[in-house]
Design goal:
mainly alpha, 58% helix, 0% strand
């Protein structure tokens, strides 16, 4: 990450999975949404959003 001091907001999934699967909840928030989703060097926000919506359809 460009700015290591960036605070990653916890998702609702962490609250629901935190007791049951704490490592999965951590990876979901910190890696997926924190590091991967916030990267702007590869795809812009519009393109990332379109890929996400397409995958969900």
């Amino acid at each position: 990450m460009a700015n290591a001091q960036t605070k990653i907001k916890q998702t609702a999934g962490r609250e629901q999975l935190g007791d049951f699967a704490p490592k999965f909840a951590e990876l979901n928030d910190d890696v997926l949404f924190g590091e991967v989703w916030s990267r702007t060097d590869k795809l812009g926000l519009r393109d990332r959003s379109m890929v996400t919506i397409t995958a969900l359809v």
